[in-house]
Amino acid sequence: MNISNTQYFVVHLPEPLAPSSEITLGISYTLLSSLIPRPATISQTDRQFLTYSFSAYAISAYPTVTQKTKVKFPGTNVPDYTTTSGIKSGSGSDPERQGATYTYGPYDTAKVAPGTTYPITVRYEFTKPVITAHLLERDLEVSHWGGNLATEERYWLRNNGSQLTNQFSRVEWTLTNFQGLPSSALRELKYPLKPGSVDPYFVDDIGNVSTSRFRPSTSPKRVASLELRPRFPVFGGWNYSFRIGWNNNLVSFLRQAAADSYVLKVPFIEGPKTAEGIQYEKVVVRVILPEGAKNVQFETVEESSSNGLPGSSQIQSQISSHKTYMDTIGRTALTLTVENLSDEARDSQLVITYNYSLLDALRKPFTITAGLLTAFAAIWAIGNIDVSIKKR
Amino acid sequence: MAESPFDALLKGESGRNTRGLLRIIILCTVAAAAVSSRLFSVIRFESIIHEFDPWFNFRATKYLVENGFHSFWDWFDDRTWHPLGRVTGGTLYPGLMVTSGVIYHVLRFLTIPVDIRNVCVLLAPAFSGLTSLAMYLLTSEMSTSPSAGLLAAAFMGIVPGYISRSVAGSYDNEAIAIFLLVFTFFLWIKAIKNGSIMWGALTALFYGYMVSAWGGYVFITNLIPLHVFVLLCMGRYSSRMYISYTTWYALGTLASMQIPFVGFLPIRNSDHMSALGVFGLVQLVAFADFVRGFLPGKQFQRLLTSMIIITFGVGLVGLIGLTVSGVIAPWSGRFYSLWDTGYAKVHIPIIASVSEHQPTAWPAFFFDLNFLIWLFPAGVYMCFTRLGDEHVFVVIYSVLASYFAGVMVRLMLTLTPIVCVAAALVLSYILETFLVISPQTFQAKSRDTSSESLRSARSPVVGISSYISKLIMTSSVVIYLLLFVAHCTWVTSNAYSSPSVVLASRLPDGSQYIIDDYREAYYWLRQNTPANAKIMSWWDYGYQIGGMADRPTLVDNNTWNNTHIATVGKAMSSREEVSYPILRQHDVDYVLVVFGGLLGYSGDDLNKFLWMVRISEGIWPDEVIERNFFTARGEYRVDDEATPTMRNSLMYKLSYYNYNTMFQTGQAIDRVRGSRLPVDGPQLSTLEEAFTSENWIIRLYKVKDLDNFGRDHNSAMAFDRGNKRKKATKKRGPRVLRIE
């Protein structure tokens, strides 16, 4: 690995660090598309193993004194891992094993130049799907007249796990399901919806997917749950694309800040919640505001536990016009595009402020009235034309 | 006495307005009932395109909406009939797609975000609403009574014979064609009554629309000339008839020739010759009529006789000459099968293999028309008693359509409108006779006539004065009507509202369980195979694969190339060693079969298998022999006693491959054919199972590539299983007789 492949982030400290004083920084980051299934093809009932490669020395722009890398695996079955020799400062084997946690180091790195790498590869069992959404399109449509927030999400999913050596066998799959064995295939996605979500749908290119179930929230505090089962189990290398949507009452998302000014606060992404996580390669969030909304501004708010949402410099924004339901000038649509997003960004919020006057709200009734009047007048005028060829 | 506010509403000028308003309200309600009774499947399942042919129409509509009219017109589809392709733009009736395309674009222009699929799904119900309005207009021309039209509209709205082809999702040509049929007939009646060029031109316009929408336009093409011909024979020639017929024929033929698929057929095909012949005849009669004004009777008689003989002779000789020389195409096979129901089975098995081309069973008439079928003859009789020009039309239509409906199940559709007209005429007559409450009207009428005419010349007072008989008649009619509504609802709900793409069944606890295997497999194909993977299946599923899986197919429901279908049939019914080269030659990547054995789904490929055998036997009588698929006792069996030909056929192997592993040894049962399968399942060497849907209805197989070592697949499989290679028996020379 050479330095030019390295991406630098600048961290500004809130207060300058005084000489010879200490500070503890916690930096967390998520790597996407870094797990490679090995073997690349397995048979349908086999267990799946993933490999992850990294460097024993952490990448750092500064000289470091001591380093330690802990690798936490989802299970204890780790058949292969690199053992280092001669670089660990203390005695004992490297890595040190403790349950599902493997610790590399500590290393005495005061003399090691920054940027030095020591390749380490671990291979561990992960008989679960490696879900990747290579595109997620998310539309939020705000309707002041209907008091409704309509959400629609379109997913293009792929399972990045090991592919099947042979073809799919229904008999084996029936057995696997019957015995409840783990599988690398995606069986089901559970999608938590905010309390009060109604009218959910789950469709794909050829119609309604009949294998879904919706459990509405029983109390206003509890989340509703949408259980989505793809039409077929999605094995490694297989794709599945679908579309889901639902409605919410707008009251809990919209606040009137001033006479003509509104503040909308919605989740940036929601997404299915799975133990194994989902990686998003590209997310396009489109917020469709009412017709005539002006001065649109947005910012993202991260909650303390959440991370994974890139800074505002990484979010491309664009304002366009979207015509639907007898619009005349089109609704203001704010499109935000983010690449590479992890599942953990699901708690971050998107806050949008915009101006919207009463006159804008009355535009549509006026348009429809005028349109109908024109139509009636035209019919009356046409009815009065005499086209007969008889003599008058 | 009636109350005064009602009197004010029902009499005089405002009475007419009230009745007009009531009529509009009734018609709107009828149309609403027609639309809503067709929505069962949307409410029960979802907004989905049904069955087979609609999937093609839907795909074509999507193509039209996405690529515009021009490229739709010139559409060459290389994703069907691989490797031949299909000139789709020139071989379809574009009326349906263009109609929904126009509706879609109008709605989009009004920025109403409508999905093209919903336009397609709801087109048939919407047009059935229009059909009942057209029915009102047509029947109102037949009768002076205003109630006849309303009754006919109501009948047309809910009669199962029409609903069968126009439920929501049944996006087929008939969806708009029946409206056009009825409306064109209405315009024709209007034209012949008024002798007006405008009505004639409108008839031609809607006739052109009809031609663009459905192959059944030939029915109009022959019925209108026949009507005119019969009127001529009855000596009812008039200038009204001359004007309306010539206007319709000239403009209508021009309009019909604008459709690429029809093209020059109207002047070259035997099916259209009657219209041309009657056109000529009308000219001659008009000329004779003109000459008669100038010539004395005897001379005219002689002229007329000689002219008739000469023209008839010349016409006949010309027709035969042109047919023999090939300028005029002879009658098509489908046409022959209309006269001889056994014709198709012998000569064109592909037509006979479609269930809707079978002759109609008697109960079907009652099932589809209920009590209208026994009112129908009475209505035709009533038309005989009145016998105006328009009643002659009803009589001819009834006779022809009754015959056709008896020959083919699907032609019940053309019979339905005229049954509704006839039944409405009768029923309105009955109701008008029996529903009048006050007996004074009869006396008042008779008193009026007595003052004007002689007692002896006065017609006797005929009428029913007894309240009892009125009550009995009225209530029985009402009961019949209620039964009719109940029957229609029941039939629509149970027989005609299943999408057949999605199957519904009930779990033991009564909840609905949806069997969605078709879409499961099609969506798997769509998501996980290369975009140009060729799928081979029996032609029934071609349109669905094109529409849902979006993959190229070898054959589909268009069935324009019998040889290609026979090739697929041969691949399915031959041994693997014969089939594999066929599959390779046609670039087949996947083979799709439908298997209902696990679920007891009887419409599967093994039950259609004999048609594949028959169709391929028609082309390769030496290689595929139907007899070999039956046991010695002539039974069609799939169990231990199945013939070797059957058990080695690709279709048999693909259906039952791996099926016995689902059961304990020797317990594998085919639930459709109710037979226990052999202990050892079939072995496949040239194909491998790629996907099987949840209930095994769809099974997909991938065609293996050639073996890397150049072995044949059978020995490669044997090697993989670890079987010892059979020692090649020592080559001995030909046996020679020792002569030492």
Automatic annotation (TrEMBL), chain A:
* Gene Ontology molecular function terms on file: transferase activity
This protein's record includes keyword Ligase: no
Taxonomic path:
Eukaryota, Fungi, Dikarya, Ascomycota, Pezizomycotina
Keywords noted in UniProt: Endoplasmic reticulum, Membrane, Signal, Transferase, Transmembrane, Transmembrane helix
Q: Which GO terms of the cellular component aspect does the record hold?
A: oligosaccharyltransferase complex
> Which pathway does the database say it acts in?
Protein modification; protein glycosylation
Q: How does it assemble?
A: Component of the oligosaccharyltransferase (OST) complex.
Annotated compartments: Endoplasmic reticulum membrane
Tell me yes or no: is ATP-binding among this UniProt entry's keywords: no
| Gene Ontology annotations of biological process type | protein N-linked glycosylation via asparagine
Name the membrane topology term.
Single-pass type I membrane protein
Q: What is this protein called?
A: Dolichyl-diphosphooligosaccharide--protein glycosyltransferase subunit 1
Q: Which organism is it from?
A: Aspergillus sclerotialis
Q: Which domain of life is it from?
A: Eukaryota
Q: Where are the transmembrane segments?
A: 366-387
In which family does this protein belong, per the annotation?
Belongs to the OST1 family.
State the function annotated in the UniProt record: Subunit of the oligosaccharyl transferase (OST) complex that catalyzes the initial transfer of a defined glycan (Glc(3)Man(9)GlcNAc(2) in eukaryotes) from the lipid carrier dolichol-pyrophosphate to an asparagine residue within an Asn-X-Ser/Thr consensus motif in nascent polypeptide chains, the first step in protein N-glycosylation. N-glycosylation occurs cotranslationally and the complex associates with the Sec61 complex at the channel-forming translocon complex that mediates protein translocation across the endoplasmic reticulum (ER). All subunits are required for a maximal enzyme activity.
From TrEMBL, chain B:
Name the enzyme's class: transferase
Sorted alphabetically, the Gene Ontology BP terms of this entry are: post-translational protein modification; protein N-linked glycosylation via asparagine
- State its cofactor: Mg(2+); Mn(2+)
Membrane topology value: Multi-pass membrane protein
* Catalytic function, reaction form: a di-trans,poly-cis-dolichyl diphosphooligosaccharide + L-asparaginyl-[protein] = N(4)-(oligosaccharide-(1->4)-N-acetyl-beta-D-glucosaminyl-(1->4)-N-acetyl-beta-D-glucosaminyl)-L-asparaginyl-[protein] + a di-trans,poly-cis-dolichyl diphosphate + H(+)
Q: Where in the cell is it found?
A: Endoplasmic reticulum membrane
The question of whether Glycosyltransferase is a record keyword is answered with: yes
Q: Where is this region: Disordered?
A: 717-740
InterPro entries xref list: Oligo_trans_STT3, STT3-PglB_core, STT3_N
Q: Where are the transmembrane segments?
A: 21-43, 91-107, 119-138, 144-163, 175-192, 212-234, 246-267, 273-291, 303-329, 364-384, 391-409, 415-437, 477-496
Residue span(s) of domain STT3/PglB/AglB core: 535-584
- Which parts form a coiled-coil structure per UniProt? none
Q: Which GO terms describe its molecular function?
A: dolichyl-diphosphooligosaccharide-protein glycotransferase activity; metal ion binding
EC no.?
Answer: 2.4.99.18
Q: For this UniProt entry, what's an example GO CC term? A: oligosaccharyltransferase complex
PANTHER family membership: DOLICHYL-DIPHOSPHOOLIGOSACCHARIDE--PROTEIN GLYCOSYLTRANSFERASE SUBUNIT (PTHR13872), DOLICHYL-DIPHOSPHOOLIGOSACCHARIDE--PROTEIN GLYCOSYLTRANSFERASE SUBUNIT STT3B (PTHR13872:SF1)
What's this chain's function? Catalytic subunit of the oligosaccharyl transferase (OST) complex that catalyzes the initial transfer of a defined glycan (Glc(3)Man(9)GlcNAc(2) in eukaryotes) from the lipid carrier dolichol-pyrophosphate to an asparagine residue within an Asn-X-Ser/Thr consensus motif in nascent polypeptide chains, the first step in protein N-glycosylation. N-glycosylation occurs cotranslationally and the complex associates with the Sec61 complex at the channel-forming translocon complex that mediates protein translocation across the endoplasmic reticulum (ER).
> Would you identify the family this protein belongs to, as annotated?
Belongs to the STT3 family.
Q: What is this protein called?
A: Dolichyl-diphosphooligosaccharide--protein glycosyltransferase subunit STT3
What is the source species? Aspergillus sclerotialis
Lineage of source species: Eukaryota, Fungi, Dikarya, Ascomycota, Pezizomycotina
